[in-house]
Amino acid sequence: MDDGLKKRLIGATVLVSLIVIFVPMLLQREPVRQPQIKQSNIPLPPQREFRSNIMPLDDQPLAQPPPEIVPIEPGKKPPSLERRPPVAKPPPTVSESSQGKGELTSWVIQVGSFSDQENAERLVNLLREKEFSTSIQQETIKGNTLYRVLIGPEIDRKQADILLKKLDDVVKPLGLNGLIKSYP
After folding, report:
1. pLDDT tens sequence across 109-123
2. Cross-strand partners of 106
3. String of DSSP letters for 100-134
4. Tens of pLDDT, residues 132-155
5. At residue 22, does pLDDT exceed 70?
6. Taking a C-beta distance cutoff of 8 angstroms, is the pair 115, 125 a contact?
7. CA dihedral angle for residue 132, residue 136, residue 104, residue 176, rounded to 10 degrees
8. CA–CA dist 89, 152 (Å, integer)
9. Helix, strand, or coil here: 8?
10. 90 secondary structure, DSSP code
11. Cys-Cys crosslink for 85: which of 29, 37, 48, 136, Cβ 3.0 to 4.6 Å?
């Protein structure tokens, strides 16, 4: 090939490359910018004074442990533990109805009460598949052990009512009805 032809081809290639690189930059109207933070996601401090009954004030007596907790004397073995269902007890929260009083209240929905633990666990698994926050509460009444299936708790009673309506679509075909109760 002719030397002059080679130089012209190389020059043409360089010019086309420069055009491909720089022309889009010149024709672009606005540079692409990443979205920036407009405001903070940190919540504002509460507008009112908050008193918690979880931690008593200096002048209040400490709460006694629940009766189902058995103290173990030093040097003795603890009583044998039965297999119990997992009990998820979220911390209590302040409801709208008690905001001025400093009392802790929330709402749970009792879906069912079963004498057979396996039936309660089956219902819990079904409800968890439907993305409900469920737990089992074991309770002994008149010598009979019951396993209550609970959903929640919810801080606001209105939210609990909305949750109950969603729940009814799932449990009505099973012959069950939800019941809203205060928690704890």
Report:
1. 888 888 888 888 888
2. 183
3. TTT---EEEEEEEEESSHHHHHHHHHHHHHTT--E
4. 888 888 888 888 888 888 888 888
5. yes
6. no
7. 60
8. 9
9. helix
10. P
11. 136
CB burial string 159-171: b at 16+ within 10 A, e below: bbeebbeebeebb
End-to-end CA distance of the chain: 93
Q: What's the per-residue H, E or C state across 25-85?
A: HHHCCCCCCCCCCCCCCCCCCCCCCCCCCCCCCCCCCCCCCCCCCCCCCCCCCCCCCCCCC
| Residue (of 53, 183, 38, 174) closest to 114 by Cα position | 174
Token code pair at residue 103: 């009392």
Q: Which two tokens stand for residue 37?
A: 């933070």
Domains contained in the chain, CATH given: 109-184 (3.30.70.1070)
15 pLDDT tier (thresholds 50, 70, 90): very high
57-87 per-residue burial string, b: 16 or more CB within 10 A, e: under 16: eeeeeeeeeeeeeeeeeeeeeeeeeeeebee
What proportion of the chain, given as a percentage, has pLDDT over 90?
9
Contact 151, 178 (CB under 8 A): yes
pTM for the whole structure: 0.44
